[in-house]
Design a protein that fits this description.
This protein has 6 helices and 4 strands. The protein has 108 residues and is α+β, with helices and mostly antiparallel strands. It has a single domain, classed as Glutaredoxin, CATH 3.40.30. The protein is globular, with a radius of gyration of 14 Å. The mean pLDDT is 94.
Length: 108
């Protein structure tokens, strides 16, 4: 079973979820705002994606103080789960970030 980490209001998350289910994939959706990432999960995602895990295009990011923007990505995710770039899709040890052609080829 795939796990899709994201937000219910995220257009890319919704597109990915719809496409995956249409392709017959079983997907568990995890709303990272309602159920924040654990320390271990943050560590895994940071090891896999580095600073790319922070979405610097959102209103949430733009609303941060400069001091917070300069803090470590792990602390940013801990304080503001909505800063996570989305969707993150995982199955076993395979993980992708985003919903572009490369990610679609991986999962569809």
């Amino acid at each position: 079973m795939l796990t899709l980490y994201g937000l219910p209001t995220c257009p890319d998350c919704n597109r990915a979820l719809k496409a995956l289910r249409a392709a017959g994939r079983e997907v568990a959706f995890r709303d990272v705002r309602a159920v924040p990432l654990t320390e271990a999960e943050r560590g895994i995602l940071l090891a896999e994606f580095g600073d790319r895990i922070i979405d610097r295009t959102t209103n949430t990011w733009r609303g941060l103080t400069e001091w917070v923007r300069q803090s470590e990505a792990e602390e940013q995710l801990k304080a503001n789960p909505a800063l996570m770039a989305r969707p993150v899709i995982c199955e076993g040890t395979t993980m992708t970030l985003g919903w572009n052609t490369a990610e679609q080829k991986t999962w569809l």
